[in-house]
Amino acid sequence: LTEEAGDGVRVVTLNRPQRLNAINPELLEDLIAAVEAADRDPAVRCIVLTGAGRAFCAGDDLKEFESQARDEAGARAYIERIQDVTRAIVLGGTPVVGAIRGWGVGGGLEWTINCDFAIAAEGTRFFFPETSLGVFVTGGVTELLPRLVGLQRARELIMLGERFDARQALEWGLVWKVVRDADLLPTALATARRIAALPPGPVKAL
Fold it and tell me: For this structure, is 110 an active site residue?
């Protein structure tokens, strides 16, 4: 879902709440299109990325993933589209503020790390399940995560899949702020409006 929040801010909401916004091909295509469209729109100066319902994103929908990974070509194409989300968030010129609640798992944690500013609700939980499922992380994690938490911690999180909460994510620098659940979207919107009010040239150059 996309919604204009005014003052140059567009809200993009993952909208599969019945599946905790787990990733499937349709969500991928819609998310890439929404972020790229916002980036092309000169009226949009900042994006807020969030999830409907009880979770930001619970990672790959395993039922859907099995159908996408029946052969190597299909798996590679699917993973490439997951990477395209990261390219849209990280390489686009429009800053992205993440409003993260509930669960940020697998791809959901990757997208959290990809945001320019990630704000998490107090009860949020994170982890990477990929290694235990016989697959590997995407989203630039092997480059970004060691920079944020150090190589040994990155190995722990990726290889062992350790779970951690919002306060730990804040301590490690994976999120920018932790707020009460009721304050999550207002804080994200206020932050996005501050960014949108800045001169766009220096902001896009960061």
Answer: yes
- The answer to whether 139 and 82 are in contact (CB under 8 A) is yes
User: Which one is catalytic: 64, 130, 156, 171?
Assistant: 130
Of 3, 66, 72, 110, the active-site residue reads: 110
- Known active-site residue 130: yes
Sheet holding 164-165, edge to edge: 103-105, 125-127, 164-165
- Antiparallel, parallel or unpaired: β 125-127 and 164-165: antiparallel
**For 4-41, what is each residue's pLDDT tens digit?**
999 999 999 999 999 999 999 999 999 999 999 999 99
Round to whole Å and give the CA distance between 194 and 95: 11
pTM of the prediction?
Answer: 0.95
Length of the chain: 206
